[in-house]
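TASK: fixed-backbone design
INPUT:
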C-alpha cells in the first residue's frame, strides 16, 4: 500500500468514525432532548415519530443517490457533500427551538450519513478491489458502529455531567473533523487506484435487474432490511 492509498484509507476511516460518533450522541440524547418539547398529545407523536422517520427515510434515499453521484461526479464529491450537509444539520439542531426544526436537522443528518457511508464504501472497494471487498466492508461497518459506541458513551456522560445541549457540541466537533478529513485527506478513486483493472460498466437498471433475478441477492436484500428494522427499533 503506497503513501497516497494509506492516506485515503486513514482519512476514510476517520471520516466514518467521526460521523458515527456524532450519530451515537444523537441516538443517546436526542430522545431525551425532544421529550422537552411535548406540550400536547399530538406533539408527542411528532416528538417520537418525526425525527426517527425523517432520518431513516432520507438516509435510505441518500444511500441510493450516493451511488449515482459517485459514478457521475466522483466518490470524493459524494462524501464531501455528505460531510458538509451533516455539519449544516447539527448546526440547525443546536439552534433549533421547536420540534419541526429538530426534524429538519435529523433529515439533513440522515441524508448526509447515507451519502457518506455509501461513498466511503465505494472508495474502500475501489482501493481493495474484488479480492479485498470483504475487508473493505468490515472496515466500513466497524468504523460506523465503533463511532456509535464512542458517541453513545460520550453523549451520555456529557449530558449527565453538564446538560443535553452541551452534548450536541460533541457531534459538532466530530462533524468538523469529518469534513476536514473528507476534504483534505480523501482523493478521487473513480478512475484508477493502485492500477485497478478496467471492467465493463453495467447500467444501473441492468444491475438492479440482475439483483432481482438472483435468489441469493434477494435473500441478502431481505436480511439487510431485517437488520435495519432492528436498528430502527433501537432508535
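OUTPUT:
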Amino acid at each position: 500500500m503506497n503513501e497516497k492509498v494509506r492516506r485515503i484509507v486513514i482519512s476514510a476511516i476517520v471520516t466514518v468514525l467521526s460521523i458515527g460518533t456524532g450519530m451515537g450522541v444523537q441516538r443517546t440524547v436526542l430522545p431525551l432532548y425532544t421529550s422537552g418539547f411535548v406540550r400536547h398529545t399530538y406533539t408527542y407523536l411528532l416528538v417520537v415519530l418525526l425525527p426517527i422517520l425523517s432520518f431513516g427515510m432520507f438516509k435510505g434515499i441518500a444511500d441510493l443517490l450516493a451511488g449515482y453521484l459517485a459514478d457521475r461526479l466522483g466518490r470524493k464529491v459524494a462524501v464531501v457533500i455528505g460531510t458538509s450537509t451533516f455539519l449544516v444539520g447539527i448546526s440547525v439542531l443546536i439552534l433549533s427551538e421547536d420540534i419541526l426544526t429538530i426534524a429538519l436537522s435529523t433529515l439533513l443528518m440522515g441524508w448526509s450519513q447515507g451519502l457518506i457511508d455509501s461513498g466511503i464504501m465505494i472508495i474502500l472497494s475501489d482501493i481493495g478491489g474484488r479480492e479485498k471487498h470483504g475487508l473493505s466492508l468490515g472496515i466500513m461497518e466497524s468504523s460506523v458502529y465503533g463511532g456509535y459506541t464512542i458517541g453513545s458513551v460520550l453523549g451520555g456522560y456529557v449530558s449527565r455531567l453538564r446538560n443535553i445541549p452541551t452534548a450536541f457540541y460533541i457531534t459538532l466537533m466530530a462533524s468538523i473533523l469529518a469534513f476536514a478529513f473528507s476534504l483534505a485527506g480523501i482523493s478521487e478513486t473513480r478512475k484508477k487506484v493502485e492500477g485497478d483493472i478496467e471492467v465493463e460498466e453495467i447500467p444501473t437498471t441492468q444491475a438492479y435487474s440482475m439483483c432481482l433475478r438472483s435468489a441469493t441477492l434477494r435473500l441478502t436484500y431481505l436480511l439487510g432490511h431485517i437488520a435495519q428494522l432492528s436498528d430502527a427499533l433501537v432508535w
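COMMENT: The chain has a mean pLDDT of 80.
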